[in-house]
Every structure is written in structure tokens, then in C-alpha cells.
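Our preliminary data section would be incomplete without showing what the modeling component actually yields. Below, a chain of 71 amino acids is followed by its predicted structure, encoded as C-alpha cells that our downstream tools consume directly.
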Amino acid sequence: MKKHNIYTSLGLLISSSYLFLKNFSAVPDFFQGLIAGLGIGLMMVGLYSKNHDLSKFKEFKYNLFNKVFGN
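Predicted structure:
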């Protein structure tokens, strides 16, 4: 079995925080849905990256970061 990558690990962490926040209703429904969607999305990207190359995605993120922060 392969080791989990960063996307899967973050997705699991965010999804578990969603379940924790859901029990205590400390956060409005909109933010709970946003957290749940982000967690599921990161887990899906993590599963996709196990079988495919994400070098173009990583390059796009790097270029976007440089455009936003003017490096």
C-alpha cells in the first residue's frame, strides 16, 4: 500500500474537523459545507494523484502564486 500524499492527508484532516464542528454547531452551515467540500475535494485530488502525474498542476499553482504575490 502506498503512503498517503499531502492532498489526501489534508483532506482527511479537514473532513475530520468538519465532523468535529458538526457535533458542536459552533460554525454556521455555510462554513460547514465549505469545509466539507474542501475536504472531499482534496481527498479526490489525492486519489487522482496516485495514478496520474500532477507536475502541470504543481507548475500552475506555482505560477499563480507568483502572479498573485508579485515575485
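The radius of gyration is 15 Å. Residues 52 and 67 are 26 Å apart (CA to CA). Preliminary results of this kind motivate Aim 1 of the renewal.
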